[in-house]
Design goal:
87 residues; alpha+beta; 1 helix; 44% strand
Length: 87
Amino acid sequence: MSSKSLPQTTAYVRVTYQSWSKGRIEGDVRASSYEWQFQWHFKAGKLSIHPSLGRALIKEPLGRFLEKYDYQLEAGSDYTFVIRAKF
């Protein structure tokens, strides 16, 4: 099976708040028809996502994205990443 035939969904992330001293990044994430708000407490490694509807779909891929890019993310900026699943 080639990677082109795998299901995928693009997630759109907007960082709305960032504080290095507090160790926190906040923002919104959208994938397909779902929308969530998140708080990433990177010093503690904790990710909160609201509302709960569909949270299980986004928590792991968003967590991986934030862990990989947290020090490159800036408030007011938009980012995307691909999830290997169809929402």
